[in-house]
Design goal:
Elements: H1 3-13, H2 17-26, E1 30-34, E2 41-46, E3 52-60, E4 63-73, E5 78-84, E6 89-92, H3 100-115, E7 127-128
Antiparallel strand pairs: 1-2, 1-7, 2-3, 3-4, 4-5, 5-6
Length: about 130
């Protein structure tokens, strides 16, 4: 499973496809938070550079912790950043370069997000946008 498919499915299930792609194109603000207990909250954002951030969040001592966050270039859906706060990991990959380790991780993570039900239409699930 590809992260692009996962993100596009979740965005479509929340009727936000047009708003999402407009934000990517114009670098406008876009934020979608989906809660699906018992899993960590999943957040999809568009950054000020027009990149797409996908992250699981949990709270530790009142702070929002990313576990993980991967930032993608939507032109080709390759990772450009990887963060895992609990381990103190931050890695930036220059656009045009490829990190096979992160790409393998992203493929597994995308499949897990699907298995966890985030790609399903979830009536009554709180969504913040």
């Amino acid at each position: 499973m590809k992260m692009q498919t996962v993100v596009e499915t979740i965005i479509a299930n929340h009727a936000m496809t047009e708003k999402f792609w407009k934000a990517v194109e114009t670098h406008d603000e876009f934020y979608l938070s989906v809660t699906n207990e018992p899993y960590m909250r999943l957040v999809i954002e568009v950054t000020s550079e027009g990149y797409v951030s996908v992250a699981h969040y949990y709270r530790q001592n009142g702070d929002a912790m990313r576990d993980p966050e991967v930032v993608f270039d939507p032109a080709d859906w390759h990772a450009v950043e990887y963060t895992q706060d609990s381990l103190g990991i931050y890695q930036r990959i220059e656009p045009g370069y490829y990190s096979p380790g992160i790409e393998t991780f992203v493929s597994i993570w995308a499949s897990n997000i699907k298995v966890q039900g985030f790609c399903e239409v979830m009536p009554g699930v709180p969504v913040v946008s």
